[in-house]
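Chapter summary example.
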Amino acid sequence: MKEKIGKMKLGITGGIGSGKTSVCRVFSVLGIPVFSADPEAKRIMNNHPDIIEGVNRIAGKDMYTDGRLNSKELASLIFNNEELLTKVNSLVHPVVFGYFLEWADNQNSPYVIIEAAILFECGAASLVDRVAVVVAPVEERISRVTMRNKLTREQVMERIKNQMDDETKIKMADYVINNSEDEMIIPAVFSIHDDILNHLNS
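The structure predicted for these 202 residues follows.
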C-alpha cells in the first residue's frame, strides 16, 4: 500500500462488539495516540452549528429540543432509511476527517491511529496508510454488546447485519486481529506495532 504524505496513519476498524476499543488501549499503552471517530462525531453533532442545522434539515424537524441531539430518535429515523443515513454521514464525516487530519499533524509519535467502525464504508480508509481489522466470533460480539449497551440480541443482530461483513473487511485490510476468548490481542498488537516501526525505519 502506498504511503500517504505526512505522518503515517493506521486505521483500526471492526464490527460492533469486535473489541476495537480494547485493541486501541494496547496501542495507547505503547505510546501511539488514538483518534476515536465515533465519540468525535457525537461531539460535533452536539456542538457544531452548521451540523446541527443540517441534521434538523435532513430530519425535517428539531432533533435538539433539550439542547442535545436526541440520538435515539435520529437512529430510529435513519436506521432503516438508506437515503437519510447517507445524507447525515455526508454531512458529518468530512468534518470528522478534517479534525482527524489536523489532530494527526499535531501528534509527536511515529504514527497515529484512527478508530472507526465504518472506516471502509465512510471513505476514511483513503486517509490512512494501513488498516487493521478486529474480528471476533458473532456470539462473543452479541454477548459483549448486550452487556455493555443494554441492547437485545435482536437489536445487536440487526446492527451486525447493517455493517460490512468481516470477510469483506479482511480482504481490504493489511492486518487482522482476532479478538476471541481463545486468542490474545496483545501479541497481535505488538506484532503490528513492530512491523510499522520497521517499515518507518527502513
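To summarize the output: The chain has nine helices and five strands.
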